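pipeline/complex-builder :: batch 7 item 3
reading input block
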Amino acid sequence: MSNIPAELYYTESHEWLADNADGTVTVGITHHAQELLGDVVFIEAADLGRQLDAGEEYTVIESVKAASDSYAPVAGEIIAFNEALEDAPETVNEDPYVEGWVMKLKLAQNADLSGLLDAQAYSDLVASED
Amino acid sequence: MSETLLTTPFYSMHLEAGAKMVPFAGFDMPVQYAMGVKQEHLHCRAAAGLFDVSHMGQVRITGPSMEAVALALESLIPADYFNLAAGRQRYGFFTNDNGGILDDLMVTNAGDHFFVVVNAACKAQDISHMQSHFGDDIQLDVLDDRALLALQGPKAAEVLARLAPEVMDMRFMDARPVAILGHPCFIGRAGYTGEDGFEISVANDRAEALAAALLAFDEVEWIGLGARDSLRLEAGLCLYGHDLNTETTPVSANLVWGMQKSRRAGGQRAAGFPGADIILSEIAHGPAQRRVGLLPEGKAPVREGVALVLADGSVIGTVTSGGFGPSLGAPLAMGYVDSVHAAVDTQVFALVRGKQLPCRVCKMPFVEQTYHR
């Protein structure tokens, strides 16, 4: 069973987003995504200060199987990258929602969380893929 | 593309073991099991891994004499099979008129016939290639009624000896008929992981029972195609269709060790195989490109198809296999570079997502082979 916390937002490309309620959000990949990828061996450092549009590719996650792009769930500026992943990329597999976060965004003026999936909708999406 | 995939006799065992199945060379094959690629890889290097390689082609070749069959094989493969002793195996490759490689294979002198194992994707082509070149007195029997298991790893011999004690007497590249659980099998002490181990040819209707008996030992776990790839890459072994193809010669692929002296210039049966002029000339004068090992200096994997360049951006080669080596604990790759840049410790750059990632040309294997010689 895929682990899908109720309090997070999700995308169809299997990112999660936590609203920090201070104009910033934390982004990572879902439990289901890390299962699909397999053992993660490298995550390209995201460029701090880069302005992202919603849906824009911001990093590449490399697993033992393949390279996979990850996308910004909403528009914003990259204000943090989880540097612990450089030495321990497997954290994304082991703890995708807490220690395995990937980046933090400062939301853009026009950023819109309403288009994201809630836990139920994402759970339905995952179920439909299985 | 709704072509029905073939299955091996282990299909239902794979599903029970939680395998993720993928199409591979026309077969529905396990790419990984519940353990995952990385743990499967490490398990094989620490204990014993069981691989379903039944998709590979097993062919029995007979003729008026063993010498006649050996010479027929030598007419298509630049290796010495005439002097291959009974009960011994030898690696080889089919070449074409341009000196390129059509497939690589394992050939065994089984005493009263030759036993050949070819790659799944090349099976039909290899068989028609042999049929069209061999005389009518050479008989090919495709052993579709037999499955093939590989048992690989430091515990492989100990485990298999519990079922067949005589395997302890075998050394690397020995092959012989052995009864396991009362049924005739054909076992070679070889494999494609860099580890000691065995390949076991078994009748389809006894295959599941044999796999179940091996898996009953704590040391043995199923290993999928994903880990098979990272294991063979760490061992510096070529994968046909990636590191070898019709554009690569045995010389550029650094496989001249697979051409015994009798087939090289001045040897007793020198030449006499497709592309001999080109291949022997390349041995004498050097190939334009060479296959090399590559160690990326950073942590990003460098994968198949990536261009290799110098600092000034000029292209000098291509990566043909690459990824992450779980035992090495680092990314690794192999590829072809212009021969002038093939020396060990040469710095080259892999062009990944527009960035030049520094890599060092290195010796292979990346992880020490532990064959039982």
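note: Chain A has four helices and nine strands.
queue -> next item
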